[in-house]
UniProtKB/TrEMBL annotation:
Residues 1-20 form the signal peptide. This is S-adenosyl-L-methionine-dependent methyltransferase. Pfam families: LCM (PF04072). It comes from Penstemon smallii. It comes from the Eukaryota.
Length: 357
């Protein structure tokens, strides 16, 4: 039986973490799609790039599958989701970052969903979430008065926004993650540069750090991060993997920057019911993040859910889709009245901070 819970599992399973095109579509573009494709055209066929079979990349992905834990491997799963939704995300190197195994696994799930006329196609949450972060990032950078800004991606994983988004061309970009994740990512992208002519970003620093340790901010500053400079912090698919203590400490550290410079926070939160999907994987939750963030010092907090006007991008056309059903229920309701399943919600949050005059 297809329920709100199973839909959330299928779409969220590829949570936490791009070849620069000459004329990429603007991130704010709204696409008119039915179940993910215009006019029910066939899903793009899975064609593995030749580079995935090359010695270096192939060996690296074999090591990832055998040596990394589930948290680190989730970065490749995320990349696979972006690769298979590239007709809306336009991520040209996601396939290389994902690897053959995850591409084939997720492609089969998408194919089965379409054969079964599912109301939500596997990975649609990832697609909507990616586009939401893209659009809010572009808007945030436009809001700064003159000059470039800093963009910090915490738990960056295999994200390659710095290669595909034009709005980042004047920004100083910092990617923070486990050293083995960043090393693998760097090696794969270097192969793409050599074989595809991938254009490298103007200013990109990769910072090897464990966000549960106390020294990540120090390592970030050693890599060139300037606390007094306007900054956008991106926490995509990150917080719920942390313990409550570590997640709150991370948010407080960022909130402290609101007192000294123009700061924008973009983050997603799970509610308590969503973390029950895998209690061994998901830990931190917040049922009311739009109340939590102001209490930490953020202002102008805006909350969206999948299916809201700024978080659908033409990808949720079925009038009976489960995300619209969820967002039409009061957020205080924890059990869906129609089928008795938990109301698993993903909240998309935008907040900012300005130093007091």
């Amino acid at each position: 039986m297809w329920t709100a819970r199973t839909a959330f599992v299928l779409c969220v399973a590829i949570f936490p973490y791009l070849y620069q095109q000459k004329n990429p579509p603007p991130p704010l573009q709204v696409y008119v799609f039915i179940n993910g494709l215009p006019d029910e055209k066939p899903w793009p066929e899975l064609k593995l790039p030749e580079l995935l079979g090359s010695g270096t990349v192939k060996a690296l992905h074999a090591a990832i599958e055998s040596e990394w834990d589930s948290l680190r491997r989730s970065a490749c799963q995320m990349a696979a989701g972006r690769a298979l939704w590239k007709h809306v995300i336009h991520d040209e190197v996601a396939e290389l970052l994902a690897g053959e195994t995850y591409l084939k696994n997720i492609y089969e799930k998408i194919k089965n969903d379409r054969l079964n006329n599912a109301k939500e196609i596997h990975g649609v949450i990832l697609a909507v979430r990616t586009l939401w972060f893209d659009s809010k990032l572009e808007a945030a950078l436009s809001s700064f008065d003159g000059g470039g800004a800093q963009v910090v991606l915490l738990g960056a994983g295999m994200d390659a926004r710095s290669y595909r988004l034009n709005c980042l061309k004047e920004s100083n970009i910092f990617e923070v993650d486990f050293p083995e994740v960043l090393n693998a990512k760097t090696t794969i992208l270097e192969e793409a540069v050599n074989s595809r002519g991938l254009v490298t970003p103007k200013s990109l620093s990769r910072v090897a750090a464990d966000l549960t340790e106390d020294d990540w901010l120090e390592k970030l500053q050693t890599s060139g991060f300037e606390p007094m400079k306007n900054t956008v912090w991106i926490l995509e698919g990150l917080l719920y993997y942390l313990s409550h203590t570590h997640a709150m400490k991370l948010l407080r550290t960022i909130a402290e920057k609101c007192n000294i410079t123009h700061t924008v926070l973009l983050a997603d939160f799970m509610n308590k019911q969503a973390t029950t999907l895998s209690s061994s994987t998901y830990h931190f939750y917040c049922d009311w993040p739009d109340e939590l963030l102001p209490s930490l010092g953020f202002s102008d907090v805006k909350l969206s859910q999948i299916g809201d006007p700024d978080a659908r991008f033409g990808l949720l056309q079925d009038p009976l889709n489960l995300f619209d059903k969820l967002r039409n229920l009061p957020r205080s309701i924890q059990i869906h009245p129609d089928d008795g399943t938990p109301c698993c919600r993903l909240y998309l949050l935008q907040a900012c901070g300005l130093p007091s005059s």
